[in-house]
DNA sequence: TGCGTGCTTTGACAGAGATCAAGTGGAAAC
DNA sequence: GTTTCCACTTGATCTCTGTCAAAGCACGCA
């Protein structure tokens, strides 16, 4: 993923964040305006950042940690509809009211921009609009991939799909080679996984136990996962090819 | 919805299509270039327009009829991931390979643009990129709404949700008033509805029968639906407010 | 050390929806 | 008029996942 403001971060010396989507320090031309409208916010795990229906006077992107978008029905059923990883964008230019709850799933730092000036900047800086379009299309693809998971996969396949996504994301950061076991920490509680997958937390727990028993994965503690054979996991997920999730 | 090329269609005299998303005839400045790269295609109900994995050398928008995006797993399970109504956009600038099957659900006319020139035009015409961003964000919202439907709603609520969407879309075209019964034809087979909702066609049929029995809807024939009380239907769908679906 | 609290696991059971299997009805074709 | 075909409906049964309940485990706190 290329940053909105600049592709190359190598000369990004005094940038405190170095995350990939928004890095105003990297672009001298836009720096001055942005300093006025940009700020950082930190959240603790579990904190709600925005409530559905709230006025949204900023947009922003995730610097570190994980945030989630969730929808809740009157009777309390909730469905996660987005998982925001570092560099992902929150908020929509032109929208006043937040349509989802946004929650910090882990401790989180966001880089926020006041909405009005950001919109103006977008009007005068075409490559921001282009970059935003690209990111939105990626998110749309990811959402559609999830619709297949939610609509047609079994509980076991759902879990395998989720693990596969997280593994691949971490792999792209921590590993170069394509073989060997993959190791990572689950950034989600069982309940959050259930909300993402349209399951109950009990079913999530049972299926994780089953995958462990069948040696598709192994667990150290509750959250630390080792995947001995990524191909095997992807078979379990029902993915036909290695193309796929774009989260 | 405003068109990509021009907001106001009142002076769109010789435009043969007059659909809302793309109407090249409306904009004199862009006309000449576009005449070279624009063409129409018709499809019969059931025809596949693009296979997943195909090279895509065009983008376009739906003029009339309904198209669907579907994903299929190796074993044949299929999930619809998008429903394209007139004015909706197909294809993605910058993408070579189609990620989904695109099928004509009803008889269909599309307005297509060769991809390369369209991309160039987009580069030089900022408002096209902006419009596309807006449409993509709308689609993303609709996809996320569907994730709630797929993940957390019961079969009955799913059917009610789908009917509610179709009713509201038709209502926005055919009705001005907000009360009174709503009448429309289902543009989908039971199987297509099932693929959209992550159900089997038998369950779809049973739930439609149940809604009929409970007088939430009434049917003339298999496809012609009357909704006596829209509020009642939305209750059945589990929608808490009238805000909602953006398909 | 002991105790609560939050997250997780596991068990027993029930129910919503899938699966398998006929059967209906209407429209086009012969 | 009859046949054929296709979309749809309905029934019987099975099974996966949800629900309710209890218990385990790790960690912080008194």
From TrEMBL, chains A, B:
The keyword Transcription applies. Residues 22-139 form the Cyclic nucleotide-binding domain. InterPro entries: cNMP-bd_dom (IPR000595), cNMP-bd_dom_sf (IPR018490), Env_Response_Regulators (IPR050397), HTH_CRP (IPR012318), RmlC-like_jellyroll (IPR014710), Tscrpt_reg_HTH_Crp-type_CS (IPR018335), WH-like_DNA-bd_sf (IPR036388), WH_DNA-bd_sf (IPR036390). GO terms for molecular function: DNA binding; DNA-binding transcription factor activity. It holds the Pfam family cNMP_binding. Keywords: DNA-binding, Transcription, Transcription regulation. This is Transcriptional regulator. GO terms for cellular component: cytosol. Residues 153-231 form the HTH crp-type domain. The lineage of its organism: Bacteria, Pseudomonadati, Pseudomonadota, Alphaproteobacteria, Rhodobacterales.
